[in-house]
Amino acid sequence: MSLGRVKTMQYFNILSLILFCLSCYWLVVHTDNPNGALTVVNTDDEDLSDATIEVEEENLDSKNVFYPTNEWQTIKPGQTIPRGLHIRLNLKTGQKEAKLMEGDDGMKYWKHGNKQGMVNTDRKLFTKEELKKALKSFKATKIDQDPTLSLGKEKQDKQKFRTMDELKEVLKDMNMDVKTDLQVIRGLLDKYRHMNVKLEDKLSILEDLEYYLHQIDNAVNFADMGGMEDLVKDLNASDSQIRSEVVLVLGTALQSNPKVQVKAIDSGVIQHLMRMVAVETSHTVQSRVLYALSSLVRHFPYAQKRFLELGGLTTLKNLFQKPSDKLKVKIVTLLNDLLLEQHYAEKHGDVKEKHQKEKYLQYKKIPLLEILKEQGWCEFLPDLLQISDLDSREKVINAMKTLVTTCRQTFVSAHKSLQEIKSEYEALSEKDTDDSYYRDLFHSVDRLLKNLNMVGNEHSSNKDEL
Length: 466
What we know:
61% of the residues lie in helices and 7% in strands.
């Protein structure tokens, strides 16, 4: 080997050593970059040793992660804010500012997109021990982790909350049994069907059933169990308390519940209720019978048709021979509601909806208004204007407004009474200016009088033409 070649090799080795030293220096300087941030890259393995630590370059996270201190600092647009900071809006500058909360140790976690990281706000460098501690804490915290991976949280939830079966077991040990509404209703019905059940127990069962059957699904389940037939049997009970409670339970189950209404028609409930209206002597029972009857026929055209076919209006008319004004107002209110149902169906009968058209055709088969006029129901309403109770009187006035065209000749006789009532409501509305109740009553009577006069003028003009 020549001397020249040996010298060339020496120069090459020296140059390589120099480059190596420069590389090490560059690596040390840039690795200790005080603006770096610690990032933990998730791995599938939960073992701490398999987690990866990356130090992000300045142009990636150092500018995008907010480093809080104990002093207020402005949060720059796009910066990721660690959790648990005290944040405010500076009203002078209009910019958001943040700082550490009192007592913070300076270790803050952040998340940006798919990356999660941590910043040490006390010092911009992490020692080896701090990295280990922070990594353990980070993996225990798992900010915004995917719910499918939160096995630890699920275990905690299971320890904190118990399943239904576990609760049943615990309550069973305490001599308490958790039952669904369906199970409770079935149990009550089984007890009710027992031949030797005492009167007090039977009344208690009926009271419990009335509570549960307010819910539509419970009432449907009750009817499917044959409960309707069991109640119908006791509509003939000798004890008025039983009859009263049975009718109340029926009314509750039937209210706004088409499925139960159909079951009731099939079980012959309407015939039994009509008989009770005619023969019942107890005012309380009669009132509850009307409640059950109205629950059955409201928004159910077929039941209304059956009601008329069975002479329902005649039966109700006979109740006007009794002194109870409260019962009479209940009847008037029911009939007015049925008339308004028909008016609504007629008004919307030309729509394209098949259901509404079918309902309109059903209501057309119910000659309620014609029968009311034939049986002289128009004559009953003016007498009820003498009732002092404002709520009852309002219901009578509403019924008269519905029937004003049909019953005009009869209602004219009540013109003086209506004027007096109008003056009374006007005086009350002037005294009580904060409440619109009396003012609304005043306008209601005023509209009724105007309709009477309007219909009267039409009749007069027809006579003049003749």
